[in-house]
Amino acid sequence: MQRRTFYPDIKSKEELEEIQLQGLKWTVRHAYEGSDFYRQRFEEAGVSPDDIKTLEDIRKLPFTTAQDLRDGYPFPLRAVPFEKIVRIHASSGTTGKRKVLCYTQKDIDDWLDMFARCYETAGLTPEDRVQIAVGYGVWTAGVGFQLGCERLGAMAIPIGPGNIDMQCQFLEDFQSTALCCTASMALLMAEEVDRRGLRDRISLKKVIFGSERSSEAMRRKIKELLGVEDIFDITGLTELYGPGAGIDCPKHEGIHYWADYYILELLDPETLEPVPPGEVGEMVVTTLKKEAAPLIRYRTRDLTRLIPHPCSCGSIFPMHDRILGRSDDMFIIRGVNVYPSHIDEIISGFAEVGSEYQIILERGADGKDYMTLKVERERGLDPARDEEVAGRIAEEIKKRVLVSCRVQIVDYGSLPRTERKSKRVFDYRE
Ligand SMILES: [Zn+2]
User: First CA to last CA across the chain, in angstroms?
Assistant: First the structure.
């Protein structure tokens, strides 16, 4: 195995947990002493830094939310004096105030170490040439991908998104070996490289995606057209430094996340209790080393599940699944939490139906709740098979989501299309 410079020398789960406990104690005390916001929150919750004696004590701590960041605008959660702050970043929020996060020099260094570790996990070395086609500006993407690359010692080619002509020229002239971009940008590039017949003149080996979700079909197409060996998914959010909080390794059994920098809890978004291992829950993060804007039980609203077994690569770092959606979209039927993204994932496994769907929730005359899934028949398929296909989809949903539902297959193109995010769930229960 190659030497991994940005991998800590942690040998056991116990050793990792000890690092987490020390980090948790430090963070709680630091937040309590440095931030009026946190001190007030802790006092309201009746908890003090001395109450944190084990990792389980994290459950005594109050939650923080995106609303807290907006309320604290322009410098929310700040826990150090301004003279220690060397940079700010902001998320590209769509409504209201942006989420702004402060960084000390140590925060920046920690972030870049995590990012360099991501690149190493994807098998990059100082020999690599990394074409960075993500957005530069006040957000974390461009600068994170670039400085992380430089931290690793590889060659950064900072180009930003768009500008397909220049992208293609750089791929050829600089012989870039890795491309960092969104999944849709990668698809665009792949089609363009194919159209221009460049595949044999470029040396691209790896593609690293930012946070956007991508389907298996999309990844296959990008691999094939670009001729790359592997595609990786980097995770992260501005509140948690930025991208670089985790990545899948070449085994692709899940996203390894950097548990020496943050604790990840997966909680039921309704009850805020932990979900059983392997079940879908909301990602709640607590940082272990962050100085300027520490996060304590920050509700990300992102959904995923923990992968309860270790990766076959042998890494000590635990894994979570890809991000499956947002907890805001969750609904409850017959006591079961259901996420539209989970249904989405299930129907994408059936070639006989398209990707458009609607979920209808109704209350029957018997007082019980009923769920109907409407999904479009794939173009050109025989409606005579509808009943059989619907039966198999319903069975798969029952098996994986634990909810009975009626599946109705409708004609291709009969569900509404919109350029904005489509409304998927129609809840007619009172
Ligand atoms: Zn692995």
Answer: 59
